[in-house]
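Ticket #4471: structure export looks truncated?
Reporter: QA, pipeline team
Priority: medium

Steps to reproduce: submit the single chain below to the structure queue and open the exported record.
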Amino acid sequence: MRIGELAARTGVSVRALRYYEEQDLLASDRSPSGQRHYPESAVERIELIQQLYAAGLTSKGIVELMPCVVDGNATPELLARLSVERDRIDGHIAELVGARNRLDSVIEGAGSHLRTGRSCRNKDAADRSVTGKGAMGRGVTGRSAAGR
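Actual output as written to the record:
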């Protein structure tokens, strides 16, 4: 398939596909006129690259991992690196789940306030007076811990 079709099927820009080739993440065959042609397997490879980017890996890191992903070739060093990346991703997932749980709590609390006619602000003020923090874990100043 040509580069435009691969871009359309994966939702990745043509420019990004060219960048992936420059970074040795993706390979294409060239027609006599120089047009890029990709195998069907390129769709799955692009999806994997996008997942790894979303997980926080760099293009250099992805290139280093590809031999293991593509044909199962792995050195003990590569397996150790994969384990480190997996553990980092697990930590990030735990943080995201914690944030989602807090949001669920806020949504649930706001919903119950709507049903009872009580104000959420009164509950948040009561939380601050007891814990020094509001419903989203902010200190009394209203700034998040990340913004300090």
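Status: closed, not a bug. The export was complete when the record was re-opened. Leaving a note from the reviewer for reference: The longest strand covers residues 29-30.
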